[in-house]
Amino acid sequence: MKGAASVGSASALNKPMRGKRAKPYPANTVDPETGKRQRIFHGTRQQARVRAARDLARRAMLEEKLGDVTIACVAAEMRAGYLEDEEARLIYKIDRAMKRIGPLCGDILLRRLDRHGVKKLADKLELAAPHPETFAFFVGWLCRIIRHGFGDLEPPVRTPGDIPGRRVRGPYGLRGPQFNDKPIPYGPEITDRLEKSSGVLRILLHILLRCGLRIGEALALRRCDVVFVDAEGKGWLHVRKSLNAEGNRKDTKTKAGKRDIPLPAVLAAELKAWFEAFPAGPMDQAITDAPGRRIAHREARTIHDRFQKTLAGRMFGFHRYRAGCVTAWLVSGVRLQNIQTWIGHSSIEITVMIYASSLAFADELWWRVHEKGKYANSPGERVRLSLVIGGKPEADETDYAPRRSAPRLKEAA
After folding, report:
1. 102: number of CA atoms within 13 Å, CB side?
2. How far apart are CA 67 and CA 90, in angstroms?
3. Distance from C-alpha of 319 to C-alpha of 300, rounded to nearest angstrom
């Protein structure tokens, strides 16, 4: 009977009064931003007690594990880790981010941050950032620093999409043309890399810059995926798999990623010479220099970063070479429908949204070349890019018709 009475009293405690306005019960909590006591009201006394107990336990845990750690301290710790791993690109990025984040919120304690506190910091960064893409860079690094500082604890936000009031990015970014301020490799920045590189990196750069592959797709290419001459006398590059960071083969990013890309004559000559110089089996990696050897992401990135330090000018990541390849295709007059297929997008709208900057850049470059008269038959061989985007011109007889798949090659089990 005693237990039944206690259960009944607990259930009655949780039920608000009927017919009258529920009495608000205050929960004694602490504002994480100011450190002062605040009173948050709940509908039942039990909800108020639970809220107060959770707040007290979380504050005690944060004070024990985080202490007086600030955002600037966490950024310095991250930079020291990058310095040990010789990650020059990440050191440059975190230094650039802290030049803006440090003066605004570098002295804020991590244990006093909650979602609304991060929102206020993001609003300050938005006012100080000169460009939306620059603000996205700063707020992304702010979330990254907070996530690293909390460690095993649950951070208030993990990504910019978790900040209250921020737009959530879709799987392919914002649903609109993305004009970003990232530089596009073109001209001497491409030719210098192709001419001055050597060995495995030279073959890898030729594949990335001439076919627009993702780095995982380029590393997953096998020698049997390269067809120099088919029954119709054309060369193809069959993209079927991708290589993840752990070195395992997996499916491509999307279904449209399984595609056939025309093999340029220059790339075909490079690959033939490479295959003759370093013979290997048909199931071996295309860029390997020894039978059975597989080059992973980390090794390729390390070789690439060391090589770029020897060049004058800007440094690029592997994925940025896709924008350079798309720009070169557009300037050469390749139809956007073909580019969509070769780049591995499921629709032409995605290609236009992601590579809007390449479209604008290529349009300007095309007219510069046309006005200088470098091509005698420009009006007959090429069309303005706006017409290519808006309409569907007839396919050129010498152009490769886009196709999604080719006869599948049997892979080793």
Report:
1. 11
2. 27
3. 13
Token pair 């909800």 in the structure block, residue: 47
Whether residue 391 contacts residue 343, with contact meaning beta carbons closer than 8 Å, is answered with no
How far is CA 307 from each of CA 4, 216, 355, rounded to the nearest angstrom? 77, 20, 27
List pLDDT tens digits, range 328-356: 888 787 888 889 999 999 888 888 888 87
Q: Is the pTM of this model over 0.70?
A: no
- pLDDT tens sequence across 128-141: 776 766 788 888 89
Task: Count Cβ atoms below 10 Å from residue 337 Cβ, excluding itself.
Answer: 16
Residues 329 and 339 sit within 8 Å (Cβ to Cβ): yes
DSSP string, 91-148: HHHHHHHHHHHHHHHTT-BGGG--HHHHHHHHHHHHHH-SSHHHHHHHHHHHHHHHHH
Q: Which residues contact 284 (CB under 8 A, 6 or more apart)?
A: 222, 223, 291, 292, 293
Residues forming a β-bridge with 28: 39
Contact (CB, 8 A) for 147 and 156? no
Q: Which amino acid is at 92?
A: Y
Tokens of 81: 């880790």
